[in-house]
Design goal:
heterodimer; A: alpha+beta; Ubiquitin-like (UB roll); Fumarate Reductase Iron-sulfur Protein, Chain B, domain 2; five-stranded mixed sheet; 14% strand; elongated; B: mainly alpha; 3 helical TM bundles of succinate and fumarate reductases; 2 domains; two-stranded antiparallel sheet; 4 helices; 2 strands; 3% strand
């Protein structure tokens, strides 16, 4: 049996009693199969019932347990204790206001996500009895990678641009807009471009690349954003250099 | 229950010291100044050329000074760094799909290197090296 104990240093903040966050350290066991989320659950169940954090699936699907683990945006359900030193520092996701302990305020992201219209806006509306919107495997493959986003916001916590310029629409929302823009069934690109091809949209991105490095689902938001930049630049040249604004 | 979210400020002047990846990013940003400076430098060379032989030869002499040589060596290294780091990212920015599959990244990167070599040979040919 593994007797190793981990010192779990957790950022605590109680809005009712605290003026600012403080660290609190808990000593927790370290079985081989435990992840940081298990350690937090151990604290909550055995040491301190007041600890607040979000989690749901425990299998890197729901995207709710993202936090800074030793300074790195990570899903706590994917962070095995055995891969860390004996002292682990856990903080709420960077660049988001702290609601309580490890729970952040995510309203800003939710608003941006909805502005990016991350849903199918069909090219041609069809009645249900006319059947489904069909798509070939090649057309699906074109955007499949971007559908894997679980809205965990690790990319926002990694992105220094988002930290410095909070108005930046950010990696995940722009990536999801791109996912629908390149979907063969979709006709909503003009609407999304008004949101993402702006100074606060993709042009705020300076290609740090941190979003793709921390993405737990290998969505590669940095790649999507560079593709949006190229497509938006082509739009600009068409509009300014081609007769009739390049519209056929 | 009242809400009182706590906002952690980003240290404006030192945020990039927090992580290695931010430092690498700032490295790319700072070295790009040299690439921009070299573009201005080439424009200056054209201006000197248009001013006649004496002006251009004085300019070339300035280039051979230790400071001129140092500037060119540093800039060459930074330009090479930016060229290779950009070429290596091109498969992300410009993926090419053939049927269901995407072209392997190596092919896209390789095509950029091949284009680079070809253009360099053309420049050397025009300069009368061959």
């Amino acid at each position: 049996m593994n007797e190793r104990q981990i010192q779990l240093e957790v950022l605590r903040y109680n809005p009712e009693t605290d003026d600012e966050p403080r660290f609190q350290t808990y000593s927790v066991p370290c079985p081989d199969e435990w992840v940081v989320l298990d350690a937090l659950n151990y604290v909550k169940d055995n040491l301190d019932t007041t600890l607040s954090y979000r989690w749901s699936c425990h299998m890197a699907v729901c995207g709710s347990c993202g936090m800074m683990i030793n300074g790195e945006p990570t899903l706590s359900c994917k962070a095995f204790l055995r891969d860390y030193p004996d002292h682990i520092r856990v903080e709420p996701l960077a660049h988001f206001p702290i609601e309580r302990d490890l729970v952040t305020v995510i309203d800003d992201f939710m608003g941006k996500l909805s502005r990016a219209k991350p849903y199918l806006i069909p090219k041609e509306e069809k009645a249900i009895e006319e059947g489904e919107y069909r798509q070939s495997p090649a057309e699906l493959k074109r955007f499949k990678q971007y559908t894997l986003c679980i809205n965990c916001m690790l990319c926002y916590a990694a992105c220094p641009q988002y930290g410095l310029v909070p108005a930046f629409i950010g990696p995940a929302a722009i990536t999801l807009a791109h996912r629908y823009n390149i979907d063969s069934r979709d006709g909503g690109r003009d609407q999304r471009q008004q949101v993402i091809a702006t100074n606060e949209g993709v042009w705020e991105c300076s290609f740090v690349g941190a979003c793709s490095e921390v993405c737990p689902k290998h969505v590669d938001p940095a790649a999507a954003l560079q593709q949006v930049k190229i497509a938006s630049t082509v739009d600009w040249y068409k509009e300014h250099l081609m007769p009739w604004g390049g519209k056929s | 229950m009242s809400r009182k979210p706590y906002v952690r400020e980003i240290p404006k002047g030192s945020w990039y010291l927090r992580q290695g990846r931010y430092m690498r990013y700032m490295g790319r940003e700072v070295t790009s100044l040299f690439v921009g400076a070299y573009a201005l430098f080439l424009l200056l060379a054209l201006k000197r050329l248009s001013e006649g032989q004496a002006a251009y030869e004085a300019f070339l002499e300035g280039l051979s000074s230790p400071l001129g040589v140092l500037f060119q060596i540093i800039t060459l290294l930074f330009v090479l760094y930016h060229t290779t780091s950009w070429f290596n990212l091109t498969p992300k920015a410009m993926p090419v799909q053939r049927g269901e599959e995407f072209l392997p990244g190596g092919v896209i990167v390789g095509a950029h290197y091949a284009g680079w070599v070809l253009l360099s040979l053309v420049v050397l040919f025009l300069a009368g090296v061959f």
